[in-house]
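Q: Structure tokens for this one, please.
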Amino acid sequence: MMIEIIFLILPVVFALSLKKGSDKDLSRYREEAKEQFRAYRAKSSDARFAFNGADAEIVKEDESITSDEDNGVVVHYRLTCFARNAAGEYFMYVSNQNGRPFF
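A: Here is the predicted structure, written as tokens:
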């Protein structure tokens, strides 16, 4: 009887541990993407075309998350930011897990 209870509870505990792991992965990916945004620079002699992620105002954010259907582990994460520079010009920034964002 006790063994049966253990076998009933074990899958629930395992599923909860995977969920917790995927949340940790997601927060890690999210923080890496935001750090990538803050570190991004585009220099230009014309202030309208210069961009500094640390100083830019994020107007809108959107996340794209792909996770494994079986275990919920994050497979791909992408953060898209629509931001405004100090000169009031708008830019679109898309993070990339390999460190080369689309700007």
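A few notes: The beta strands are 41-42, 51-52, 57-67, 74-84, 90-94. The chain is about 35% helix and 30% strand.
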